[in-house]
Amino acid sequence: MKGVFEMISLMVTLLQLLSTTSAILDPVDFLALQSIRKSLEDLPGSNYFSSWDFTSDPCNFAGVYCEGGKVIVLNLGDPRAGAPGLSGRLHPDIGKLSSLTEFTVVPGRIMGALPVTLSKLKNLRFLAVSRNFISQAIPAELGELKQLRTLDLSYNQLTGSIPWAIGNLPELTNVILCHNHLSVSIPPFISQSLTRLDLKHNELSGIIERNSLPSSLQYLSLSWNQLTGPVDQLLPRLNKLNYLDLSLNQFTGPIPGCVFGFQITNLQLERNRFSGPVQPEGSVTIPTVDLSHNMLYGQVSPLFATVENLYLNNNRFTGSVPTVFVDRLTAGDIRLLYLQHNFLTGMPINPRTEIPLSSSLCLQYNCMVLPVQTPCPINAGTQKTRPTSQCMEWKG
Length: 396
What we know:
14-stranded mixed beta sheet; 13-stranded mixed beta sheet; 5 helices; 27% strand
C-alpha cells in the first residue's frame, strides 16, 4: 500500500511540473542572468539584487519580465530617483537573452565597453545605458538591431565616432548620445520616424549635409561641439522642430529667416560664426532668441521687437535701434534686450524714460553716447562707448 501512495505522489508531482512547464525560464536565459548577476554589484545603499535568488523563479526578480519562458525586458537597477545604482561591468552573456525587447541600466558606476553581443538581440527596441562610466567606442554591430527605436547612451565616456550603421537603422525615433567624447562627423540618419537627436557636449566636427537629417525631427541639440559649415540649406527642411540648439560650434554662413517662425520657445544659435544680415520672414513669436557672439551685421530688424528675451550682443549690427523696441521695452513687454558690443549708432529713447525694473537693457560699447544708463552684465566690460576709430573703419 505504501508503494502505491508513493507512486500516486510521484504522478501528482509530475503533473504539477507539466502544468507549469510554460512558466519555466529557458535554461539559456537562466544561465545568462546568472552571468549578468556575477558581473555586477549593488552600490552602497542599493538593494536591487536582494530579490535575485536563483533558487526561485527568475521571472519574479526585480527588473526582469518574462513571456513564454523567455526574458523580454531587463531593467538593471532601482529606477527610483536618487537610487545609488550598480557597479561592475556588463557581461557579454546579455546577448544570449534572444527575446529581449528592452534593456535599461539606471545611473551608477558601471564601467568598461558596451558588449558587442548586444547586436544579437534582434528584437531589441529600447536600449538605454546612460549616466554610467561606459567607455571605448559604440560598437558598429549595433547597426544590426533593425528593430531599435530608442538608443540612449548619454552621460558616459564613449569615444570614437558615431557608427554610420547606427544612422542606417530604419526604425529609430530617439537618439541620445550627449555628454560623451564622441568625435568625427555626424552620420546621415535615414529613419523618417526620428524625432529626437541629442548629441550635445561631444567633440563632433565636420559639415552636416543638407539631406543628412530627416524632416521628422522635432528636437535637435548639437551644442558644445566643433561642427562647421553652413546650415541655411539644412534648417528650412526641419520645419517640425520644437527645440533647436546649435550653440557653441563653428557654424558659418547666414541664418535662414524661416527658423524664426519655428514653433519653439528658445532659439539658441549663440557662439558660432554665423554672418550676414538677419531678416525674419514675419513677426517672431519665439520667447527667447540668442544670436550673440557671432559675426552678424546689418540693421536690427523691427520684427525682433516681439521677442521677450533677445540676445544680439557681440555682433556687428549697425544703424539705429528701431523705435518699436523702445515702445515695447517701456511697456514691459521686453524682459531682456542685450545689444552691447555692436556698432549701433543710436536708440531713440528719451534719457528721462523709465525702464521697468522687470526689464534689462544693455547698449554698452557701441558707436553712440549712451542715451540711458542701465546696468549691464559684468562680461560687457567697463568701456561705455566703442573707440571712434573702430566706428569709422567698420562698414558692415
